[in-house]
Amino acid sequence: MQDKYYGEFGGCYVPEILMQPLAEVDQAFQEIKHDADFQAELSDLLENYAGRATPITLARNLSRIIGRKIYLKREDLLHGGAHKTNNTIGQGLLAKRMGKKRIIAETGAGQHGVATAMIGALLGIPVEVYMGRVDAERQAQNVKRMQLFGAKVHAVDSGSATLKDAINAALRDWVTNAGDTYYLFGTAAGPYPFPALVRYFQEVIGREAREQMLRLTGALPAAVFACVGGGSNAIGIFSAFLDDSQVKLYGAEAAGQGLHTDYHAATLEKGAAGVFHGMHSMFLQNQDGQITETHSVSAGLDYPGVGPEHAHLHATKRAEYLGVTDHEALNTYRLMAEREGILPAIESCHALALALREAENFDAEANLLVNLSGRGDKDLKNYFTHVNS
Amino acid sequence: MNRFTKLLKNQQAFIPFFMLGDPTPEASLEIIKAAIDGGCQALELGLPFADPIADGPVIQASAERALKNGTDFAKCLELITAIREYSDIPIGLLIYFNLIYRQGVELAYQKLAAAGVDAILQVDVPLEEAEQYNELLTKSGLASINLIAPNTSEERAKKILNNTTAFAYVVSDYGTTGVRSELPQQTFTRIQNLKAMTDVPLVIGFGINTAEQVQDLLSAGADGVIIGSAITKIIAKHVDDVGQAKVAVTSFINNIMTKIG
User: Containing domain of residue A34, as a range?
Assistant: First the structure.
């Protein structure tokens, strides 16, 4: 249980009924770390099903424009279209090993839901996905993909009908069906062991990226950028550089319509410490401790909390977390399409926009590494709605 | 000795649950006073939290009504103070931890104790996390209520009981709060097993809604029974008419009190 807390953050704050199922997940997690058969199957699926390793691409035109080299870790090229697949393959295999008959998941942008549905189809385990109705509407294509993979999608109407409410609904399902159901949590947040477990399966991003940067450039990058909703892609890539104090780490939070407005999801910059969704972390909340509704153009960052390790990295200043507005992210979406012929997810555009903004603070020789966490086809409709309005 | 221990060592109790501030702070106070007049022996009160993961749709809607109508932490303290002035009845409080954390844990405990709360159940703080706050809780004078779930092992239940100073809230069934048509047989064997290992009072809750069920549980050895969603549904039906809500809640409570004699 050494990974249970990150400084003062983390822990396992859940109703008693979830303690036993979480302990069961933790036990399986500890076992698979040293289980050669499990690791072999995981590696096989990551390589031959999902297409790892993902490449690193030098964004040649953007780099020329801003005068710093920007390298992209191409998780958008992973099967399923985002880094989420790393986690769902891992936890899917874990669920299978534990003999679970049913998998449930929450999803915001739909990427985690799609990645879970995909793995459910592959492993032959029925999947049910909870998704806020607002998200289901703005990511209708992902809903169809999940359904094609055979998953049942429940639209959640309570609260703000987004990711927070989808997690509430999934937790309620788990409380009811803990015996035969595995809750495949999508991000490095929530109660222990999920922050540690999801990080474990996402560390592959950082491991590969570190080695690739050394091979390609002969040195570590000056800085690493990733977007942060719950924070799984960010912790995945950060994990390999945490001990290299010369590598600056940047998390891009969703500043929505601006940090001076009420319409954002910038948990670390604007939130306060609290205890919610199983963890002691940072949350957007009112004076009384009621969790507030968030706003972001990207469903994947539209969450009022953040993984506890990010809260810790923020508190200790090992990583810096800065807001990127909807407007900046949408501009970057177009810029990437026009200049690089790449369409990143709007979530990933937050990380890219932050790298472009911060680039001038680095020497001309500096190499900046950006985790391009997912592909942006899912955001086309959203993009054109915004630019035409 | 806290009010709950005093009560439950001597008699079995029916404990209705009320969400503070549902449908409005004023109406809520009137309804709770009516329940006290109706003869219930203790109260379990909830502080409204908009994202109650252990609760079903009925309690969530209740919390939303209370919040929408201006119920916040300060208002809840006022209501509890008024209830305490009205009666000497044991008051338990069911609360999601963020509401306490946000006030400052020590300060929140002190305020709740000063308002007249006897014991609190921090729904999302299991044994392991509770440890760091036990000292502050004891210092404040609040007694503790802790959950024992259907999947809590006997070994773990023992530890939980050792840390419980008011009563153990034994969850009758898997799932969230909410009315169920029948109670699982497991609930009854659970009561017997727990009874055999402890003197800590055992109060059963989640899914109970009829006088017959209350009677069955008390006959099986439970020290108390909590009904929440069934009562909250009555309030939901009469949100615009406090008078009607009071009559209906009182009649529901009378019916149970008559049955259990």
Answer: 13-46+84-194
